[in-house]
Structure formats: structure tokens, C-alpha cells
Amino acid sequence: MLAKCKYNVNLLVAENLSRDLLEILQSHKANLCQKRQTFKISGSILNILLHIISNNQGKANFLRDNGTEILKSFCQDLTIKDRRGDRLLSRSWTILSKCRTPKLLPIADDFSPMQFDAPEVHWKKRSSVFKAQKRSDDELRASYDKFFIELQSLMGGNGTEESTPSLSSSVTELYDQLHTERVCGLYLFEDIALPDRLFLNDASGPEEFLHQKNCNIYREKLLKVLYNECKDNSRSSTNLNSFIHDNDEPSVDLDVVYDLDQLLDPSHSNVGFHSRGDSLQFESRFESGNLRKVIRLVHQEYNLILTPDVNTAKHHQWFYFSVKNMRSDQIYTFNIINYEKTNSQFNFGMQPVMFSQLEYEQRGLGWTRVGQDVIYYKNEFSKSMAAGSNYMTASFKIQFPHSTGDVCYLAYHFPYTYTRLLTHLEVLQCSKSQDTYLRIDSLNKTLNNHDVPLITITSNNDNARPLLERKLVVLTSRVHPGETNASFMMEGVLDQLVSDSQLASVLRSNFIFKLVPMLNVEGVINGCHRCGLTGDDLNRQWDKPHPILHPSVYHAKGILAYCHQILKTSHLPDKKQQADQPFLFCDFHGHSRKKSIFLYGCSGDESWLPSDSDRSTNSSHTENQNKGQQIKPSHLSSMGKCFVNALLELAEEQESTSVGERKLQNSLLNLDNRWRDQSFVIQVQKVHDHPVGPTESDLDLILSATTNSH
């Protein structure tokens, strides 16, 4: 703990204590097997050394005292195969990585090969929400009246009633047609991925449990990295080699078998990467695909490099590609070597998903979890010339079910494409119940001229609550393209809302739903993880979105403003019945490092704008708000198995990253889900200046629909 203080570190460096610490480490090396206390001493020494080398002079002293060779020797002689040894090995490798010469990824440029010429506009990122100007009622009416035509019959206009169309072709044919006519990536797609055309759901088999981690693999992988660092050293590395199972295999020259940069470069031929007849053949040039480069190492081991988001050099997480020319009697190792996050669910039971064309044709099997020896660890490649900032590797082994003739698709998670959304909306129009009002509009055009669908769902039953008395619920999803689980959740909600169930009928009779299922259409199409075409995280633009650069967020926020400014002043005979709109705004997300399902919400009491803080003393609004927040875990658990063993945690106030509110109180519900390594996040965000809390009975209806949706 004392070594964390900069002053104390300077004292350690001035006394050149790294030499003494290294001597102690060497002297204790032989006793690691016998004495437990020796592990603690060695771990503390490594922690102190890690702080010392953060100082430039301390690093120079460490290198001068032959610290790197001493640490390599320490790792080579560390034969204890348990978690304690793994921790020492990991700390040693962290020190070595900060001292070595940076090793860059084998790519020409860190930036994505997919570039988009965004319009040049005067816009300052992360501007404060309090500087944003309120849009006038006239502007809101001019822009968004067309999205509320279901209300016109009661507001002096002429409402329209749509008939239910019929589906004239199969879903697969419809998918192909919509993909051809309405989808365009930044480069020419070579094909349509087969599992997308089949319109598969996430898991076609039984519930899958988390993968059991092999604790020896982490040690083996780190030792292999160390071996690559010191293999040219003349010292013996016999102990190290005993842990490198692949080291005895005959080596081959590095072989680039896939390179997206060259494939997109018109000056290069698109042929010639599959130079070895027994090499796997890769492809990612299809909708939502992501794979930048593949390098064959030894026999059946491949290093894979992911493509960063458009116009950026970061956000490497989502992958989706196809593989051919495999053999079923071989075990292949895939190392994805440019992950950025320091940890991942790959370390805690998550596995990639795979679709096999022959398995589907012969057994009807869709996406399945695959991969053995799944591990996530820090590798030898640096993010930049700044030493110590290393990429992470996600490594797994696969034995394919069939040999040549099969095509397999591998993905980070179950893919959900923009074309699938368009297809699903077409199917919904043909399958909705008779008393369902369903309308699909285009909220806006993206920078690449794609439609962002806006769906309106309510009841057209004469016995339902009058339209102007219905509460507005706004649901959005997929602002982050890599969070495909959010799209599956939204698809389930859509299916539930248009069904003929009693619950759906009650919901439609009491609410008007406005849904934007895919806020980041361009990011989804082009295989991004977090951003769109401008390189901006759209979920960080809610405070002041630009109408040109971030049109979907700008207009989604406009819908919310219209609900609040226009609809709350509707001409109800009884003014007491009027309530602030929207009643609820939910944003569906997925989480890459948290398990299970949780809700994240904003307290109205903590969400006032400065100009409206005096209103917070209104006792009636405070009472309604608090009543709506009292969602007990036991109450949620009665709605379905995904809410079993719910835990409620009230966090301290924080600054929102989504709607730019200054203060909020977070309600976090961590829920047990034994088999899915995904999270369902609902951000309940109050965006108006006079929040009225939802009642418990109203939330019952909405949460029940969400729980039963998928």
C-alpha cells in the first residue's frame, strides 16, 4: 500500500531498492513449494517492483540490474500449478510488458480500413445539456406530428386505418429481397450469411450452462508469451518448454490467410490469401461481419485481428466471420489478439457461438456454444508505442463437426442484423392481432441513407381507453451495435405487444407504444461494436446530439420532447387527468462484463434541472415518484424465472452518461440467470422537467410484458 504513494516510490528509487528486492525474490524462489508465506512475500515484492518501474529512473535501475532476466528465470522455474502461481506469473508478465520494447500489431494502420467521409459541421463534443436550447412547440409539431397520426382523429385531423397485409413470400425470400433493396454497407458484401437468412433465434437447443474453466490454460498461455519473449536467449528454458504443449510441433512460416485491408484496396487482387491448401479459409464481408486479418502460426493455430469501428482505431470486441476448408479430425486454436478491455466474460464461462451449415441441414441445429480451453489474457502486443499498454487475447479451441464441404460461422454472440429487423417488421404487419394498431414509420435517414424504423403500437378497439387518455411508453434499443442481445429482447417485446394474449390486449388498451428497435443502424450493418459512421458513441450524445451527425438520437430525443411539450397539454376535458408524457422511457442494452439481468433507473427526485429545482418540493409528485420506484425483488421474481433471487441495490447519485441529467439515483437489480452470459439493461430515464413517477400497477403491466417477451 505504501508503494502506491508517489513520494514513497521516489524514495525507493533513490535508494535503488529494486536490486535488493530482486535478490530477495531469487532467494525465495526455491522455497515456493514448501512455504505459503513465501508466496505472499514474492507477491508483495512484485507489486512494489510494479510501482517502481512506473518511475522512469526506477525502470532504468530495474533494467540495469538485469531485472527482466531475473523475472524470466523466476517464471521459468515457477512450477506450482495453482491460482497462487498464476497470480505471480501474471504480475511478473505485467512488469515485463512495461519494460520491454513495444511490439505492435502486424497491421499497416491502427485505424479501421472502413472509412466514411462524415459531413463537416461545427459541433463540440460532450457539450453540457444545460447549454442546449429547448425546441419550440412549432418546430416539434412540424417535425413529429406525422409520427402521431393515430391521435389526429381526436385532435381535429383525419386518422387513417390500415388493413392487415398478407405475406406473399417465405421469410428467407423476404430477407434476401430486403437485403438487396434496402441494405448497403461501406463496401460490397460478398454474400448473405446463411444463419441470418434462416431467421434463426438465439439458441435452438436446450439451455446451455456456463463453460467450466480449465485453470491450467491461463498459465500455459502466459508461459507461451514469455517463451516468445525469451526464445532467442541462450539460457536454458527446459522448465518453460514443459508447459508449452504446442512447442514440439514443427513450425511453418507465418502465413497471412485473410487480410481485409488488401481486399478493400482496389490496387490489390482479391485472390491469393489461401496460399496453403490445408489452411482454413475466412470471410467477413457480409452484413454485421467483423474480421480484419488472420495469420496462420503453427499448423492449426491462427492469430485473428478484429476490425475497429468505422473512423476509429478502437472498440475491438464484436466478431462475426465464416470458416471453410476445415477438417473434423483436427483441433484448431483461434487467438483474437487485439481485445482492449482488461477482463471479459470469456474468463468466466462464456463461449463463442457457432453455426454449421451441414449441422443445420442434417440435424436442424442452429447457433450453439462452442470452444474449449477458453481464456482471456494480456498478450505481448502494445496498443501504441507507449510501453505497457497491451492488448488482450481471447483464445479458444474448436473441433469442427464436419470436414470439407461445410461452412461454419463464428460470432461473439448471436448476430442480429438490420435486415433481420426489417424482415421481422414485415412479418409483424401480417401476423398482428385484429385489435392491434401497428404503424411503421421512418424516424430519419442515416448518413448512408438507411431508414431508422419507428414503430407505433396501441389498440384500435372501440372498448379501449380513449386515445388521449393513454400513456406514452417510449422504448429504444441497439444504440451499441455489438449488444445484439438487446435486439433479441426488443424483438420479443414487439412479438408480445402485437400478440392476441390478454396481457398484450390490456397493454395496448392503456398505452401507446413508440419503439425505435435499432438506433445505430449503420454500426450494425458495418459490424461495429460501439459507434456508427462518425466514430462517436451515440449513447454519449443524448445531452446535445447533432441533427446531421447523430440523427437517430436527435430525433428520438425529439419524440420524447414532443410527448412532453405537446401531448401533456392535450385537450382533455378534465385537466386533473393530464399527466406528464412520456410515462416511461426504456433503453435496452447488453453488458459485456456483467452477468444476468439488471435494471438501471433514474430517480425523479434526483433528476431536476437547475431551473426546475424549486418544483421538487411538490409533495404530490414526490409521493407518486417514490411509489413508482418501490419495485421489490420479490415482486419481480413472481413474474418469471429470470427474476429469481433478485437483489436490490440503491447506489449513490452519479452523473448520467445517457441523457445528460446532473443528478440521479441509481436502482440496480442484479438477477440470477444460470445459463445466459448476457445482460438485459433497461435505462429508465426521465427527460422532462417535472417528473411524475409511474404507479406500481402500471409498471406491473410493462415489466410483465418484458419478462414474458423472450
Automatic annotation (TrEMBL):
InterPro entries membership: Cytosolic_carboxypeptidase, Pepdidase_M14_N, Peptidase_M14
Domain (Peptidase M14) ranges: 414-710
Annotated signal sequence range: none
Taxon lineage: Eukaryota, Metazoa, Ecdysozoa, Arthropoda, Crustacea
Region feature (Disordered): 611-635
Identification of the protein by name: Peptidase M14 domain-containing protein
One Pfam family hit: TPR_CCP1_N
Similarity field: Belongs to the peptidase M14 family.
Known cofactor(s): Zn(2+)
GO MF assignments: metallocarboxypeptidase activity; zinc ion binding
Bias type Polar residues, positions: 616-635
Biological process terms in GO annotation: proteolysis
Species name: Tigriopus californicus (Marine copepod)
